[in-house]
Amino acid sequence: MSESIAHPEFGESTLVLGIETSCDETAAALVMGGYDVVSSVVSTQVEIHAEFGGVVPEVASRAHLEVLNPVIARSIVEAGVEDSRIDAIACTVGPGLVGALLVGVSAAKSLALVYDVPFIGVNHMEAHLYAASLEDPTLEFPLVVLLVSGGHTMLVEMQDHGRYRLLGQTIDDAAGEAFDKVARFLDLGYPGGPAIDEAALLGDPEAVRFPRALLDGSYNFSFSGLKTSVMNYVRKHPDVSSADVAASFQAAVVDVLVTKARAAAKEVGATSIVLGGGVAANSLLREEILDGCVKDGIQGFLPSRAMCTDNAAMIAAAGWHRLRSDGPTPLDVGATPNLRLPFLNV
Ligand code: KG4
Ligand code: ZN
């Protein structure tokens, strides 16, 4: 199967400015021809939200408003191009926090009008699917993408550009959310994923055998029972070491993620398993996915941490593909907080 290109006028020399403001990262990037990242600037709000123990939507919108213009300006300066060279503006229109999305979408539409270039509304989740191919354009379809972030946990079969099948998703907490909640319970700090990852280095992953919700016969995930089980265990054993609990919890999450991703890849005949989302930075997950792929004779591709987490290069890349297949997005398309991916099967 090959990409359907209805708009070949947008090609290898088309320079897309990507803008991302869906959650707590303000980002802008310039990408040429869908794959060549010319510049990529990310300003994170993690420290601003840390004192609240999670992302506060209104605070996020205000912070985007303050830094978006300088972030865009820096992405253009770092690229070393005149702004008149920009051929299209791609921006996340959803899913995400409505106030945060509105900041990026308003800026993107204004710039599209000022420069008289196409506006491209991008689905943030589709952009995550494109992140890996930005770092390795030789990845071949079909791919199985394990997308694990603070807000999402999904297994997706990427059959081709724009052709996705949802294999499974979480029925309760996202994987990153589980890391964050367990870390908060253990007083390990925010964001919880890196804190648990670090604490686990000093712990025994076999100290406590926490339950693995394998939901037999399905590629769906559930992490809320595991979180409750960790809390119950610690309440019953107040002297247990946090490092052992962190390591045992992490082992349970990773076990489920890797088991399902490998089974999915086998079923669809995938050439590779690709990771995406903030949890893809987890050291045990990275190690176990690679080990599993070697055993299964397929490729395991681990994008860099910068490409796994929210960034605007992936927005520009996904926007370039959308521009070629669908053309410019009408300016009356706005921020859509619950935007879904156009899956073939749901
Ligand atoms: O993709 P991301 O940066 O933001 C969104 O959720 O959109 O993901 C953030 C999530 C947080 O829940 C964070 O705790 C988790 O990714 N995370 C990790 C690690 N680094 C970040 N989880 C496990 N291990 C890590 N090393
Ligand atoms: Zn994201």
Structure description:
Helix 4 (124-135) crosses helix 11 (313-326), helix 5 (175-185) packs parallel to helix 7 and helix 8 runs parallel beside helix 9. It is built from 11 helices and 10 strands. The mean pLDDT is 95. A 5-stranded mixed β-sheet has the order 3-2-1-4-5, with helices on both faces. By secondary structure, the chain is an alpha/beta fold. It has 2 domains: 3-130 and 308-326, ATPase, nucleotide binding domain (Nucleotidyltransferase, domain 5, 2-Layer Sandwich); 140-302, 2-Layer Sandwich (Nucleotidyltransferase, domain 5). Bound molecules: 5'-O-[(R)-(carboxyoxy)(hydroxy)phosphoryl]adenosine and zinc ion.
Itemize the secondary structure elements and their pairings.
Elements: E1 15-20, E2 25-32, E3 36-44, H1 46-50, H2 57-79, E4 88-94, H3 98-115, E5 119-123, H4 124-135, E6 143-148, E7 153-160, E8 163-169, H5 175-185, H6 192-200, H7 224-236, H8 242-268, E9 272-276, H9 283-296, E10 299-301, H10 305-308, H11 313-326
Parallel strand pairs: 1-4, 4-5, 6-9, 9-10
Antiparallel strand pairs: 1-2, 2-3, 6-7, 7-8
Helix pairs in contact: 2-3, 4-11, 5-6, 5-7, 5-8, 6-8, 7-8, 8-9
Zinc ion is lined by residues 124, 128, 149, 310.
The CATH homologous superfamily of the largest domain is named ATPase, nucleotide binding domain
Helical proportion, percent range: 40-55%
- Strand order, largest beta sheet: 3-2-1-4-5
CATH class of the largest domain: Alpha Beta
Portion in beta strands: 15-25%
Bound molecules: 5'-O-[(R)-(carboxyoxy)(hydroxy)phosphoryl]adenosine, zinc ion
The major β-sheet equals: 5 strands, mixed
Structural class: alpha/beta
Mean model confidence by pLDDT: 95
Number of helices: 11
